[in-house]
Write a structure and sequence with these properties.
The protein has 344 residues and is of the alpha/beta class. The protein has 16 helices and seven strands.
């Protein structure tokens, strides 16, 4: 896959996001940096690759972009990788030098897909850029970045109409997991405030481990669900993306948020909860009844929080235990509806 686009559209980060996306789907991606003009572009991609544990081709200083791509392809084939992601150079504006370089790489490598990365926030400019790249280079699809807001769905519709090329993915945040396959009907549902249940299900299937879910079910049935189990659940939820984006996929949530003046879902709250649980001893996580006043003060100091916040978490946990007891008593039909045991 060859990624093209202008400076500042998010190509390098998108290359890493794609690597993570395909890695989760049992592919073996290989990153190749062909941007020799932007300072630190190669180092940036290498750092992102190391963070994901995705292998990376390190070019020599004297190599041209085409040589980097050809050598990168050799290394990818030799290493048995099944997907090569090429991060090409951008420009501040479309010029013939850029197009000549990209056409040369495309003609020699013959990539299965050339994907244009465009910034949805630029509005009409994104549409003009897509039209230009498609006419002068030929692209197979588009990835729209900075699509966090529903109101930007119009850019996707316009680009599709102008280029007659599909929108393949959308970037919905800065984190490396903030990339989604694009579905027009789902985008329409989000714009209309109807949520996006299918994407939510797909994210859950990737984030949640089936064996862990079964082990959790057994613990709930035996009334042995601990704060350590809860911490593991938080970590899995965080893999799905920001809490706000997850809740935004629930039908009716967007309208409810607007009607109430908006909800503030700070991902730092989940980090804070994890910190509180991590500041407890294994015995305290297994049996919260032993957490007295002095222990609560120690936990608050250790986690950088307040005693009130520790008390709030313990209260939520106690309420959740009661709720899970009721689930267990309902039997198979009641329990197997799935979902998080507690978030309020």
């Amino acid at each position: 896959i060859m990624l093209v686009g202008l400076h500042g559209c998010g190509k390098t980060t998108t290359a890493a996001k794609l690597a993570r996306y395909f890695q989760e789907r049992k592919r073996r991606p290989y990153l190749v940096p062909a941007d020799v003009y932007r300072p630190a572009a190669i180092d940036q991609l290498q750092k992102l690759g190391e963070e994901l544990r995705v292998d990376f081709y390190r070019p020599e200083a004297s190599q041209t972009p085409l040589e980097i791509c050809l050598k990168g392809k050799e290394a990818a084939l030799k290493g048995g990788y099944d997907l090569m992601l090429i991060d090409t150079a951008g420009r501040l504006h479309i010029d013939e030098a850029l197009m000549l370089e990209l056409r040369e790489i495309k003609n020699h490598l013959k990539p299965k897909e050339v994907l244009l990365v465009a910034d949805a926030m630029t509005g009409q400019d994104a549409i003009n850029i897509a039209k230009n790249f498609n006419e002068r280079l030929g692209v197979d699809g588009v990835i729209l970045t900075k699509m966090d807001g529903d109101a930007r769905g119009g850019a996707a519709l316009s680009i599709k109409a102008v280029t007659q090329r599909p929108i393949k993915f959308i970037g919905v945040g800065e984190k490396l997991d903030a990339l989604e396959a694009f579905y027009p009907d789902r985008m329409a549902s989000r714009i209309l405030g109807m949520g996006d249940v299918l994407t939510l299900i797909e994210k859950a299937e990737v984030a949640f481990d089936a064996q862990q879910a079964k082990a959790l079910e057994r613990k709930i049935r035996k009334d042995s669900f601990t704060l350590e189990d809860f911490r593991d659940q938080i970590q899995q939820v965080r893999k799905m993306g920001s809490l706000e984006s997850i809740l935004g996929m629930i039908p009716g949530f967007s309208k409810m948020a607007k009607a109430s003046g908006g909800f503030d879902f700070d991902g730092k709250e989940l980090v804070k909860v994890e910190a509180i649980i991590n500041s407890m001893t294994p015995k305290e996580r297994a049996n919260t009844a032993i957490i007295n006043g002095s222990r609560r003060l120690r936990i608050a100091k250790g986690s950088g929080t307040t005693v009130q916040e520790v008390n709030h978490l313990l209260k939520q946990y106690a309420q959740a235990r009661k709720m899970m007891k009721r689930f267990a008593q309902m039997g198979e039909k009641g329990f197997r509806r799935g979902g998080m045991p507690f978030f309020s």
